[in-house]
């Protein structure tokens, strides 16, 4: 899959990219929301991995944009805080498919990405 | 202060009442004295008038007798029929005269009117009594009308007196006309009825009303009146009807009015004084109230400011903790992720073990940092509890997964069991994340301190308290009574030498207990049988069903 990784921590961004490449995916790393949206203009992605809280703002807007720009794309949101602890992220970020809390173990992430790849389908059907 | 004011008010009121009574009493005394004086004056006037009336009456009678005597004197002889007619007319016109007689020059009665009165005819009237003789002889000798003192009348006609009118013709005494007065009959017509009357003639009481002696009123006497050489005295005692007729006002009513006016005046003064004092007090109270209001306003402003500052501080704490959580988790995720990547790489076994060791250390570090963050949140009171409606079977499955995960890490030495009370309804209302946090900590401890045996979880409802109970049972070494009391305190750890991973900050149980309290529940421990421990989480507010479904 073509994966866009938005993470403002360089080290953690490196971990995601290395991991995804080891898994055989094509990865585009970015560190801010503007770059993410510019990248989505360039090509369609199959999967977005978004860090919720960025150095400047959040990636909620990116998820909203992706919902309309890339309706077939799956979105994994990753957060280091206790927000949306009861699964109510859908109200704020209806385009996000999964919300994970750091630290995310790589085996768990691998299983989720495999599932995303298998169930890749247009969002209209899921709704 | 209030007591002193009340005392002064009572004293002033008592003074006003006292003054009222004094004024009323003085007014009564004065008015009563006036009334008495008025009665006396009226009685005096009446007595004087009565005396004048009597004298005038006597004078009229005397003049009438004189005219009769003049006619006889002019005629030179008595015309008996004419005399009797005149006398009868006189008697008819002037009640009180009992009889009228003609006495000859020897004072022998020759004709008497009324003609039915025959007791005197033919008698020497001068011989009847010395008083008669004196008066008759004095009249003959003085040629003036004379009058006897009070004498008993002939024929038992009571007390009376005689008035003698001598008749002379050419200087010769012919005789005279005697008018006989019956006091009783005379005064019956003239005496006033509204006073008790006493008549004294020449010092002798000739008439007295029946109640004169018993009448307690003041006796008012006239000055002596001279009549035909006799002293006539009238004395009156007013009767109640007379006094009442004279009364134009009642001293009692006057005193009452005076008292009422005094009381009203006093009360007005009191009221005016009270109003003045009240006004002064009101102004003073108003000033004090404004001062208190100003103080209150300042207090409110201060508290609002303090509240805002506290809220700001709380918000700052929340933001800080949120940022710290993010700042800790992100690099730890990077560290753990790196170790995982290294573990997956094709590297020598030695470096493989080093990567595994680094990864575990990072995991432990993360676990303890999470606890520190939790303690900070609890201390900052920014931990929120959000109960939601949870499907029981899904919650159980999550717990079952946790239990399986722990067992997988522990190995085959430890078996697990999970039992669920079928009486638990399909949905329960809990903060699943917080409950899971507590149970995860309890399971972690159970597996940490159990070398072999079983770790089990039993979920059931307490029939007595309706609490939802989670029992975590292990077959480890157990906890002595002395440790039980300290177990849930921060940083407390049991050093029993058999823990496989005895590391840790000692915060887990204290955090679990504090979070249980926030969930309106309890966390406790008791010995398991035959060995080990049972940690029990009890939730009480789990049946609310109006929350959203999580």
Question: What does this molecule look like?
Answer:
- The complex is a heterodimer of chains A (127) and B (550).
- With 127 residues, chain A is an alpha/beta fold.
- Chain A is 43% helix and 20% strand.
- Chain A has helices at residues 10-22, 33-42, 60-69, 89-92, 106-118, 123-126, and strands at 2-6, 26-30, 47-51, 74-79, 98-101.
- Chain A has a five-stranded parallel sheet, with helices on both faces.
- Residues 123-127 of chain A have low confidence and may be disordered.
- Chain B has helices at residues 2-75, 80-93, 130-142, 183-190, 240-246, 251-344, 349-380, 392-410, 432-449, 481-484, 508-518; strands at 97-104, 109-113, 146-147, 151-152, 159-169, 172-182, 195-201, 204-208, 220-221, 225-227, 230-238, 388-391, 414-420, 427-430, 453-461, 468-474, 521-527, 533-539.
- The longest helix of chain B is centred in the middle third of the chain and has 94 residues, at 251-344.
- Chain B is rod-shaped.
- The interface between A and B is medium-sized, with 25 and 25 residues.
Keywords, separated by commas or semicolons:
heterodimer; A: 127 residues; alpha/beta; five-stranded parallel β-sheet; 6 helices; 20% strand; disordered C terminus; B: 550 residues; alpha+beta; six-stranded antiparallel β-sheet; 11 helices; 18 strands; rod-shaped
How do you describe this structure in short?
The complex is a heterodimer of chains A (127) and B (550). Chain A is of the alpha/beta class.
What is the share of helical residues of chain B? 40-55%
Count of alpha and pi helical runs of chain A: 6
Number of strands of chain A: 5
Structural class of chain B: alpha+beta
Rg of chain B: 69 Å
Q: How many DSSP H or I helices of chain B? A: 11
Beta-strand fraction estimate of chain A: 15-25%
Largest sheet of chain A: 5 strands, parallel
Structural class of chain A: alpha/beta
Overall pLDDT confidence of chain B = 86
Provide the succession of SSEs of chain A. EHEHEHEHEHH
Largest sheet of chain B: 6 strands, antiparallel
Question: Which descriptor suits the 3D outline of chain B?
Answer: rod-shaped
Biggest sheet: strand arrangement of chain A: 2-1-3-4-5
